[in-house]
Design a protein that fits this description.
It comes from Durio zibethinus. The chain is of the alpha+beta class. It is built from 9 helices and 16 strands.
Length: about 375
């Protein structure tokens, strides 16, 4: 069971309404080292559901201990089961592990790990939402709108430890909805999008937390991931953004197109630059192999080091081929695609038409369009 909740420890913090003292700041600045975190939640935390998460993370059946004293049955056998639900806060502060302590022999070890490695850590402050790292440039990049596990149903298996619990159902977040394995929708607070298919309960709420760090005004651009001529690019300029709040664009999507949505500072926090890129359907494990992401990172790095760059971020107006390998043969038009950039130029050794499609100009000349 501890393996199932392994990510529940590092996914803290959970809610903007709960804060602890900034111990790590005092530690690094040479202040007095305290032993315990001072942890407080505002009233809004208890008035809202699910601690800012889409749903309760754990729903678990535990045996009722009612009337067990008058029976000879063990604690796992007597009484009817009771279903309890636990929010992200109740996992983070140890409430959940204390509640099942009588039914799970591993709970004491988990509580010890939680206290020693998280609550009593002199540097890490796990009970306070993450502040922006104190560095000049932050680029937060992740995939969205894949089916992501955000909650679980557990029940006793009747077997001895460590197989004493089984997962009876899973709650998934998918494109703004919460569904069970059966496909039935359930109530909750789903995000504007869903996560990146991480199999460790990391929903959109967690991935998109860095949007809170954007400056007071933000430029939002939604563009296709593939090469495009700019006809399907949507832009919202100078959108007002309040510190430590999410920002959701009013933009449309074509169901057949995968987009990248860029949130980039129009007006930055002084001395800082923050950008958030959301890639449709990009899997958590495979995003680093995404050709679209590699292209965007390469263009941004090239833009940042170019002496003639005049803006903070590379333009998103269009995306054409950057290398000979990006040119290909358009069989419908019987010519090389992207005629503005590519031409048919056979070189000995080419074995198909696409290989003979090459850039008209050098890559250096092509890149000047992105300054």
């Amino acid at each position: 069971m501890s393996n199932s909740f392994g990510s529940s420890l590092w996914m803290m913090p959970f809610s903007k309404y709960c804060r602890a003292d900034g111990m790590y700041l005092k530690h690094f600045s040479g202040g007095i080292r305290k032993r315990h975190h001072t942890y407080q939640c505002e009233q809004e935390e208890f008035q809202s559901n699910y601690s800012g998460w889409p749903t309760n993370i754990i729903n678990i059946e535990i045996p009722s201990i009612r009337d067990c004293a008058q029976t000879n049955l063990s604690g796992m056998e007597c009484g009817l089961p009771t279903q309890l639900s636990f929010s992200a806060r109740e996992i983070s502060d140890g409430t959940f592990f204390k509640a099942i302590e009588d039914y799970d022999s591993d709970s004491k070890r988990i509580l010890h790990q939680l206290k020693k490695s998280y609550h009593d850590d002199p540097v890490l402050n796990p009970l306070t939402p993450w502040d922006r790292p104190p560095i000049k440039n932050v680029f937060c990049i992740y995939g969205i709108d894949s089916r992501t596990e955000v909650g679980y149903y557990f029940a006793p298996s009747g077997k001895p430890y460590p197989d004493n619990w089984i997962i009876t159902d899973v709650i998934y977040e998918i494109e703004g909805s919460l569904i069970l394995r059966s496909g039935n929708q359930i109530e909750g607070n789903p995000g504007a999008a869903s996560g990146d298919e991480t199999v460790s309960s990391v929903p959109y709420h967690s991935l998109s937390w860095c949007k809170n760090w954007l400056g007071p005004r933000v430029n939002i651009t939604r563009a296709p991931q593939s090469e495009h001529d700019g006809s399907d690019v949507q832009v919202e300029l100078n959108v007002e953004h309040h510190y430590e709040e999410d920002i959701v664009p009013n933009m449309t999507r074509s169901p057949r197109v995968k987009y990248i949505t860029y949130y980039e500072d129009s007006e930055s926090i002084p001395g800082k630059r923050t950008a958030v890129w959301e890639l449709d359907k990009a899997n958590h494990r495979n995003i680093v192999r995404s050709p679209a992401l590699m292209r965007e990172l390469w263009l941004q790095i090239w833009h940042d080091i170019h002496v003639d760059a005049t803006s903070n971020f590379v333009t998103k107006a269009k995306r054409g081929p950057l290398r000979d390998e990006d040119c290909y043969w358009d069989y419908g038009k019987a010519r090389c695609a992207w005629a503005e950039y590519c031409e048919y130029r056979y070189i000995f050794g080419d074995v198909h038409l696409g290989q003979s499609c090459r850039l008209k100009n050098s890559s250096a000349d092509t890149l000047l369009h992105y300054l």
